[in-house]
Amino acid sequence: MLLLLSLVATACRAPDRGGGGPVELRIGLGTAVSNREAALEGIGALLFSESLLVRQTDGRTVAGLAASWKWEDGDRTLRLELKPGVRLHDHSELTSDLVVEVLQSNIDADDQQPGFEYVTGVRAASAHTVLISLSKPDFFLLPALTGLRIVSPSAPDVATGPFKIVSRSPVFEAVRFDQYHGGTPAIERVRVLTYESQRAAWAALLRGEVDALQEVSRDTVEFASRATNVRTYSSMQSFYIPLVLNHRHPLLKNVELRRALNEAIDREAIVTSGMRGHGQVAQDPIWPLHWAYKLPTTPQHHDRGSAERRMDALGLRPTAGSTPGATTPRFSIRCLFLTDEPMYERIALIIQRQLFEVGVNLVLEPADLRELRKRASAGDFDTLLARANAGRSLDFTYRFWHSGDSRKSVMWNTGYTGADELLDQLRTSTTDDQARTAIAELGRRFRDQMPAIFLAWPQVTRAIDSRFVVGDANEHDPFAKIWEWRPAEAAVR
User: Is 80 exceeded by the pLDDT of residue 40?
Assistant: First the structure.
């Protein structure tokens, strides 16, 4: 703590980075070694590659490398018109033949990206026109196209993005691409430096070793706001934290008990204490910033008395213990929780205490991500505390909660089937009105049947040296458009 305060005081005097010369951006990445490769891959993808379509914060799909798209043949064919004049890093032109090759490779892959399940064919209709055929209408194909990066099949470091990769190891390094179709970036070089933790990366930012942090830990966000040469940008992640309930459990299969447990948990306390205030209470697993979503008129609320009455009515009453004045819990259940981040243990302990107050014994079972995924897909848990991707277009909400999803190996197996027809309705919605209706009904179903206790939406905080201007401060995530950043001096001129 004293070290951090000292570094914050030092940071009030911006370090001398030198004037003139090439504009270089150094990004600090603090992550465990086990997650480092995936984290580097994610940042690298933002710098050097792009997708055919782009997903906005509100879930809407907009143009990317595809300038336009159109549904044909009763919504069983998607026509994509590529943006003309786009160059790859090897200076060749982006054509429909290359796009078809990338799409076909993904369709044929064993680890096929979700969203292509109903694709029956893809072909080039002209030099800049791609046709994707489906066996039935599937509007999750659009968000799938926003997640698939167009990279040369013969050269994995050649794409269309604003920066060209020059090195991946020992330091990830990229230089600007002067033929970038979006305009020439002001930043000439980007380097990504890795640290063993987010706290170590934060200290490096304050010492002037890096210019931006991909993520600031929740424990150091308070200190970040005190540094005069650093600006922080917080945004809600499209991930939520649920306490998933196994419907095959002899007690948890009862919806009244699930409702009782839901009322016993104080979400506000979880956000305040477990997440250090960096989150938002969740009502359901639907992305709350989605253009078609409306908050429920009767939100979930903490009501200890009602929770106790519901369990009493089910015959689940505490009994007198062997020690005078002591009682035996109503029942015991297990909680499998993720250990990859301290936040999950804090939340698990808060839930354990809150359930203890209503007479329920929650036995905590820590697990790393690999073990948690294994047990989740096998249904080997009573309750499960982790995080889940909602998908800004709700495609991942479908994949986590549809019982017939073919990719259940990486999801959880709860035995819940109560939302299947509404999820299918959402997946085939062809108009805005249909989407609004499906989302409203889906939210009500989740809040009524309680397949999980939906706790919170976490916030992520980026930290960027004030020497850089990131553009629109209202953008949800400035890291999504690093190529638009400018040195502060250039922005003034």
Answer: yes
Q: What does residue 122 show for φ and ψ, rounded to 5 degrees?
A: -145, 135
Give CA separation, 202 vs 229, 458, 469, in Å: 13, 19, 19
CATH code for the domain in which residue 441 is found? 3.10.105.10
Same domain flag for 279 and 254:
yes
Separation between Cα atoms, residue 414 and residue 52, nearest integer Å: 35
Range of the domain at 361: 239-459
Q: What is the mean pLDDT of residues 76-81?
A: 97
Residue 156, in any domain of the structure: no
Q: Is 40 helix (H, G, I), strand (E, B) or coil?
A: helix
* Amino acid at position 302, single letter: H
Q: What is the band of 227 on the pLDDT scale with cuts at 50, 70, 90?
A: low
Q: Is 170 exposed, middle or buried (0-12, 13-18, 19+ CB in 10 A)?
A: exposed
Query: Which pLDDT does position 475 carry in this prediction?
Result: 60
pLDDT beyond 90 at 199: no
Provide the token pair at 136: 């039935």
Cβ 389 vs Cβ 396: under 8 Å:
yes
Helix, coil or strand: residue 133: strand
Residue 219 near residue 199, CB atoms below 8 Å: yes
In a 13 Å sphere around the CA of 222, the CA atoms on its Cβ side amount to: 7
Q: Token pair of 314, please?
A: 């089910």
User: 435: buried, middle or exposed (CB in 10 Å: 19+, 13-18, 0-12)?
Assistant: buried
Enter the pTM of the model: 0.86
Cβ neighbours around 5 below 10 Å, total? 11
- 221 three-class SS: helix
- Please tell me the total count of domains within the chain: 3
Residue type, 158: V
Question: For the residues 375-389, what does the mean pLDDT come to?
Answer: 94
Query: Over the chain, what is the mean pLDDT?
Result: 88
Maximum distance among all alpha carbons in the chain? Answer: 83
* CATH code for the domain in which residue 90 is found: 3.90.76.10
The pair of three-digit structure tokens given for residue 445, joined into one six-digit string: 């179903």
Q: Is the previous residue joined to 170 through a cis bond, with omega within 30 degrees of 0?
A: yes
